[in-house]
Amino acid sequence: MDRLKAEGIPMNTKYLVELSDEQRQHLEKLTSSGTCSARQMKRAHILLKSDRSACWSYEQIAEAFDVSDVTIAKVRKTFVEQGLEVALQRKKPEREYEHSLDGEGEAHLIALACSEPPAGRDRWSLRLLRDRLVKLGHVESISHETVRRTLKKTNSNRG
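The structure assignment produced for this chain is given below.
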């Protein structure tokens, strides 16, 4: 601890970032190439400036890259505990969403959307399609937003 104090590292810094030459070169190449996402770029900058050799404080990093102390701490923690590649990547959502429509359901929806609209209507609305899918028994329940996304994904036109 005395060594850290002598080197000017704040005592409340729990996760010390020490980049190898190879890691530093990789991050510098990443930040200079501009071929990665903005999130990866920001995380790479945070890691470069968090390296012990850089001697940047939380406040300097936060101000320079417009991030919060919490973001800096999370990036540092992830780097120390899980490594460079994990620290650069976006965390995958923990929740798995069940799809309302399988391939067969999507096919029925598209066929329905391409068919003649009900009497008295010029075209199918999303809610009419939703209601008809439920009535025909293709799904138990579905939102009109799921109908919209599915039709958009398949480039179907209701008009």
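Interim note for the steering committee: DSSP finds nine helices and no strands in the chain. The chain has a mean pLDDT of 86.
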